[in-house]
């Protein structure tokens, strides 16, 4: 048959069975005519295993003969370079979307690699930000510009923007491991995170006293959950993270330490003093419940500390204080009492020196006070007349 064109393809008549007509000008380019009269352009070639392969290019009338031929020329040229467009199309058609990849990531990767609290944050990022932005895109088609655009849209929430970028980066790294994206193709690369202002809030001596008195008043009045009051006291006195106190079990308390099997930084030992033991001694053990800070359901631990904490801090006049600031306050108190940064890092269970280094500037206060005292004394001697 001569060169395929609109005129020649229009002239083809349907038969009882489908048949092919091939373009003499471009070997491998043809049109398939169905008994229904439908006509579709395609290419036919042999792959590296000498197997005959076909790939559709579009329906006649939807695409023109010239458009189909231009695409056919490119695809047949790729075949000459060893590529397999039919197989590539089949693979891409079955490739997962970002939503499908995210669901697999959450079910196959996260449970064995992340803590429940981290998994919860990952799920939040997917549901609120990632899926709405490009959940329907093929995972292999996500470009750096797509991720950069999402990161930019969250610029007014720098912490959330950076966490979402981190989730995407881990997921796309895993996609490479699973063979769903080429190696080194992570679209999160080179996207600069926003600067996050580290909030530093420490309780002064007066504020600590006020918080302590508030806890005593609420306990005496019986207007606040005893479990919440116990939790706050333990947080203040140990410097532990909230999750570590919420999930603290009686069996973890051994002599003068809390032996936590699974903290944020892994297994760790938290030294405790007499005052912590005093608080623990006053906590009632409830039936078969293994937890120190019990929840409402039998055998459970407290799960929501934010609501009672908002009430407690309001009663104490500390509305800007977060629960995590209690941990910072423990560290600042230790610095003020002259404890070294390595010792503070050990007390708090830091796995990296850089984490403890954030408290280094607090050590300047007592040093400055000493320097001022010494210089004042020397200055007084210099001014003394004989």
TrEMBL record:
<dbReference type="Pfam" id="PF00589">
    <property type="entry name" value="Phage_integrase"/>
</dbReference>
<dbReference type="InterPro" id="IPR002104">
    <property type="entry name" value="Integrase_catalytic"/>
</dbReference>
<dbReference type="GO" id="GO:0006310">
    <property type="term" value="P:DNA recombination"/>
</dbReference>
<dbReference type="Pfam" id="PF13356">
    <property type="entry name" value="Arm-DNA-bind_3"/>
</dbReference>
<dbReference type="InterPro" id="IPR004107">
    <property type="entry name" value="Integrase_SAM-like_N"/>
</dbReference>
<dbReference type="InterPro" id="IPR025166">
    <property type="entry name" value="Integrase_DNA_bind_dom"/>
</dbReference>
<keyword id="KW-0238">DNA-binding</keyword>
<dbReference type="Pfam" id="PF14659">
    <property type="entry name" value="Phage_int_SAM_3"/>
</dbReference>
<dbReference type="InterPro" id="IPR038488">
    <property type="entry name" value="Integrase_DNA-bd_sf"/>
</dbReference>
<keyword id="KW-0233">DNA recombination</keyword>
<keyword id="KW-0229">DNA integration</keyword>
<dbReference type="InterPro" id="IPR011010">
    <property type="entry name" value="DNA_brk_join_enz"/>
</dbReference>
<comment type="similarity">
    <text>Belongs to the 'phage' integrase family.</text>
</comment>
<dbReference type="GO" id="GO:0015074">
    <property type="term" value="P:DNA integration"/>
</dbReference>
<dbReference type="InterPro" id="IPR010998">
    <property type="entry name" value="Integrase_recombinase_N"/>
</dbReference>
<feature type="domain" description="Core-binding (CB)">
    <location>
        <begin position="96"/>
        <end position="176"/>
    </location>
</feature>
<dbReference type="InterPro" id="IPR050808">
    <property type="entry name" value="Phage_Integrase"/>
</dbReference>
<dbReference type="InterPro" id="IPR044068">
    <property type="entry name" value="CB"/>
</dbReference>
<dbReference type="GO" id="GO:0003677">
    <property type="term" value="F:DNA binding"/>
</dbReference>
<dbReference type="InterPro" id="IPR013762">
    <property type="entry name" value="Integrase-like_cat_sf"/>
</dbReference>
<feature type="domain" description="Tyr recombinase">
    <location>
        <begin position="198"/>
        <end position="372"/>
    </location>
</feature>
<protein>
    <submittedName>
        <fullName>Integrase</fullName>
    </submittedName>
</protein>
